[in-house]
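Why predict the complex rather than its parts? Because the way molecules touch one another can change local conformation, and only a joint prediction can capture that. The input here totals 601 residues.
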Amino acid sequence: MNKAPAWLQILSRSGAALLGGYALTYAASACLARLLPLAPADAVIVATLPAFIFYTAAILWAFASRDALRAWALLAVAAPLALIGFWPQALEWLA
Amino acid sequence: MKNTFTQSMAWLHTWGGLIFGWLLFAIFVTGTLAVFDKELNHWMQPEIPASEVSQADAARRAISYLQTHEAQAGNWGVSLPTERSPGLRVSTAERRHGGGVQLDPHSGEAIEVRDSVGGNFFFRFHFTLDLPRNWGIFVVGALALVMLAALVTGIVIHKKIFKEFFTFRPNKGQRSWLDLHNASAVLLLPFHLMITYTGLVIFMLIYIPAGVDALFAGDSRAYFQAQGNARMEQPRGLAKQPGELVDVVPLLAQAEAALGPIAGFNIRNPNTAGARIEIRPVLGNRIALSKGQAMVFDGVSGQLLSDVTEWRAAPLTQRVMVGLHFAQFGGYPMRWLYFVCGVVSCVMIASGLVLFCVKRGRKYATASADASARRWYRLTEVCNIGFVAGLLLACVGLLWASRLLPAELAQREAWEVRAFFGVWLLALLHAGVRPARRAWVEQLGLTALLCIGLGLFGGLSDGLRQGVVACALVLGVLLGVLAWRVQQAVPAPLKGRAARSVEAGA
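Output of the joint prediction:
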């Protein structure tokens, strides 16, 4: 990946920032909404308010990581968070 | 991206800031203007009389007009004269989006008012870029996110954040532009962060519906019901029986005592036994945005049916953040504070864009640079001029169009919008054919003249319109000084943007 031309690296990192960042933000908000000890209507709001902090951090990660492949590690972080957030749905799907 | 974290962040700040900065500048400028949207509405529709009529009298006249002309309508809407919006407007459900009818608050007679997009255009452009609404809010949301990332990376690459608070070295070319960019950014950093983040919070559940998807299986209606925002049932049977409408004025007084200043009211099923009167406060009675709140009264007995709800802590937090963005609270002092802070944000973005070119001009705009680099540099320069000076020109152009287009023109509002985008496009083309420094001077100079010239249209009968013209005058003079400074900048090495622009044009 390090040998890839600069424009490809930039494209890949931008994709990681936009899509990987969105996936991470979405998953983190869902996870937080599920775990917060609040009424569902309140948990949705409290879990979504910090969403753009996650997204900003993800964008910075996508451009700061050592190589362009590592930028996509965002997806690896998003997956378990999404699993916690959508735990009941996941169980239903498995059953 | 680069060797160190700071270098990576500097790269992201530079390129992200450049590519998205052009549209971000447009969003910040129109957002700053939208702080005075109602005042601009009033200026752009000079037929609306300046009035000092009590809301009670205005409400009585509005209802007697509606009884005479729209007795059978299913819904009456009345916008009462307020401090910022002296007009009296009535509408019916059928014509709700046609803007309704403007009444003379003194006589209660309909008056002919030109159609105009008004200052509302700036408000709509600010959050949709005049794209279809659903596309627009996503594009603007993505841009706001880039803005947030640019702010954070800007902080990261800043080593001496406190010292640069006090640093400004004028007339030193690139250094001055860097200092201006840093000073405007650091000085109002809390404002920049606040306005960007709260802007994202407005539509956060549209952008990130994760919580609703996870806890309500994506059913947003169930979510809103859980929030207690369910609409009140309309009594269907009663709406068929005739009934006599109660006097609205005491109800207005009752609502005003509870809610503060009133913006207007709606009457559903007027003249029936099922009539409902909904009275809404102006948005700025508290920091939390009170949009959608109303006190509902029975239209026959005048009994209070439902009061405004108190928000729980979580929705209140969101409402307060949204309210901080909408800037409706605190009256005119707060409005001016937001306007000035908004101007500083615009200066920060514009100076960053200019800095990009100033920094690279020495390298790319000279004859020794290779052709493709020079072409890209020139493109950047043209976009800078067209998206900074050109946008300002388009904004004041819209104000001129609202007064110059014939009042009875069909689809007048669409023509005003065309004028706005037409001027903007012409400015971009103009920047493309003129040497850069000339283009800056000409566009800034013309914008300044048009701003100063707003007073020529007269109609300075009331404080609101005088305020618009006076503010435009001050901004015009400032832009004029800026144009003059660009013109005067000495074309010698290390003497600022203009020097390099001249080389680029040569």
